[in-house]
């Protein structure tokens, strides 16, 4: 009896893969509409962004590659559109080589909804150097990146002409898939307490971001797709994150189901005792 | 001389940046900012060096017949193709957009998506109550998955609250301990570099 039950619960890999594929397809084809509760982190992030006004300058840095784009691109879109809707001036840049085309995409989206290039939004392109690049950029914007992505000197663009360093910024938002980003951003932004540091990160990185929030070094953060979906709800903007939430919920629930089944199989597994045939 | 010079450059730059952080001396500040700008340029230059290095290693692998020919050709073709369309993207925006959004992006996301299958299999085979430690890990894993997903709040309002406690108490304590210990280690390692005692990075023991 125990052996029979063990054979039932000890799922082969093919069955595991088939179950997860079918559940994901089912929920993508026919969304369930699981209710979303807005958490305190997304609300705090929204409140800081919502305090922005005309004349405030926001730096939004895309620090993610293609694999993280399904989580980070909706964050970039929601944050940029929110800042624009508040009348803030946006400086977009990519600190990851893959990030630049995503910034291009968001720039085009902003221009499509009426943002004026050079006045409301500027795109600096790819800024290499990691932590040293951030330190240089925050200390001397024009010296570090003399031209925008089209080669126009920053001094000629109305938005960036008056922005010399991080003292002229209201909010800085890195959108990151880099596990070390919370540490080096908080280190390099420490000399500029006037600029509020927010952070949007992949859900897997959230435990690395969270310890900096109670200290105020990071004022608020967005945790992966669930955090972004909550933020989109607050913005009343149905974006990519909200569209992914049913699939994520069902995937996690399926994983928990696999954990339960795996433990039942482990409990039913025939024990090998001393002297018994190990085969 | 060729071995001593890099050490003195490192010592000089390290001391300058450190002193400038603590003292407000306009000349030092200007020099420090200039050096930090060089780092950005050097980083960009290193990306080019990385490409050249990859070509050299791949060609060497093909010559010695140790490399997989098809894989190497596809990799080199992709790298050079992407380099050309990116360098001349003002002239060929359609090719750049197609290479990035229709080739590179779907391939990258597809490879990353395969992790879902590995995670499903791992959830079934490895997260098991074998010992006290693995049981704690199991509870944390289930709480994190249900705490992040909206489904957790539907099952019970205590699940997100428990996940939040895990994140803000045990995780916070552990992460801060690791961060502070790593920072002290980094300070010690940096001091060795600034004082010229750490020479392995320039090939000296």
| Oligomer classification | heterodimer
Major β-sheet annotation of chain A? 6 strands, parallel
Strand arrangement within the widest β-sheet of chain A reads 3-2-1-4-5-6
Radius of gyration of chain A, rounded?
A: 23 Å
Question: Any descriptors?
Answer:
heterodimer; A: 279 residues; alpha/beta; 13% strand; B: 205 residues; mainly alpha; 82% helix; extended
Task: Give your account of this protein's structure.
The complex is a heterodimer of chains A (279) and B (205). Helix content of chain A is 50%, strand content 13%. With 279 residues, chain A is an alpha/beta fold. In chain A, strands 3-2-1-4-5-6 form a six-stranded parallel beta sheet, with helices on both faces. In chain A, helix 9 (181-189) links the parallel strand 4 and strand 5. The longest helix of chain A has 29 residues, at 240-268. The mean pLDDT of chain A is 91. Chain B is an all-alpha fold. In chain B, helix 3 crosses helix 4 (93-113). At the A-B interface, helix 2, helix 6, helix 10 and helix 12 of A face helix 2, helix 4, helix 5, helix 6 and helix 7 of B.
């Amino acid at each position: 009896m125990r052996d029979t039950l063990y054979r039932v619960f000890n799922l082969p890999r093919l069955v595991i893969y088939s179950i997860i594929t079918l559940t994901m397809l089912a929920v993508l084809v026919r969304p369930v509409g699981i209710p979303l509760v807005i958490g305190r982190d997304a609300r705090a992030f929204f409140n800081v962004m919502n305090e922005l006004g005309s004349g405030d300058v926001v730096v939004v840095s895309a620090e993610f590659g293609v694999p993280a784009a399904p989580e980070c691109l909706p964050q970039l879109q929601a944050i940029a559109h929110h800042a624009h809707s508040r009348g803030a001036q946006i400086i977009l840049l990519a600190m990851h080589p893959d990030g630049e085309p995503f910034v291009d995409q968001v720039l085009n989206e902003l221009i499509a909804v009426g943002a004026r290039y050079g006045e409301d939004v500027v795109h600096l392109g790819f800024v290499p150097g990691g932590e040293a690049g951030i330190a240089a950029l925050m200390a001397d914007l024009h010296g570090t990146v003399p031209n925008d992505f089209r080669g126009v000197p920053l001094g000629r663009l109305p938005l960036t002409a008056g922005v010399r360093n991080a003292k002229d910024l209201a909010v800085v938002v890195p959108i990151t898939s880099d596990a070390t980003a919370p540490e080096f951003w908080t280190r390099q932004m420490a000399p500029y307490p006037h600029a509020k540091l927010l952070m949007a990160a992949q859900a897997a990185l959230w435990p690395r971001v969270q310890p900096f929030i109670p200290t105020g070094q990071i004022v608020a953060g967005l945790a992966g797709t669930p955090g972004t979906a909550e933020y989109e709800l607050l913005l009343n903007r149905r974006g990519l994150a909200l569209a992914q939430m049913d699939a994520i919920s069902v995937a996690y629930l399926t994983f928990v189901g696999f954990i339960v089944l795996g433990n039942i199989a482990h409990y039913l597994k025939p024990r090998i005792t001393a002297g018994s045939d190990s085969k | 001389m060729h071995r001593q010079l890099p050490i003195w450059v490192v010592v000089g730059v390290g001391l300058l940046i450190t002193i400038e952080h603590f003292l407000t001396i306009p000349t030092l500040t200007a020099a420090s900012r200039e050096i930090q700008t060089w780092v950005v340029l050097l980083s960009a230059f290193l990306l080019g060096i990385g490409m050249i290095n990859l070509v050299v290693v791949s060609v060497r692998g093909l010559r010695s017949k140790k490399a997989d020919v098809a894989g190497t050709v596809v990799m080199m073709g992709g790298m050079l193709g992407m380099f050309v369309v990116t360098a001349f993207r003002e002239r060929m925006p359609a090719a750049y957009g197609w290479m990035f959004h229709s080739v590179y992006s779907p391939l990258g996301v597809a490879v990353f998506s395969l992790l879902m299958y590995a995670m499903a299999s791992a959830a079934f085979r490895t997260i098991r109550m074998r010992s006290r430690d693995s049981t704690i890990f199991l509870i944390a894993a289930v709480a994190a998955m249900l705490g992040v997903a909206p489904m957790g709040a539907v099952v019970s309002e205590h699940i997100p609250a428990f996940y939040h406690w895990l994140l803000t108490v045990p995780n916070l304590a552990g992460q801060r301990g690791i961060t502070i210990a790593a920072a002290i280690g980094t300070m010690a390692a940096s001091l060795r570099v600034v004082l010229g005692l750490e020479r392995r990075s320039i090939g000296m023991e």
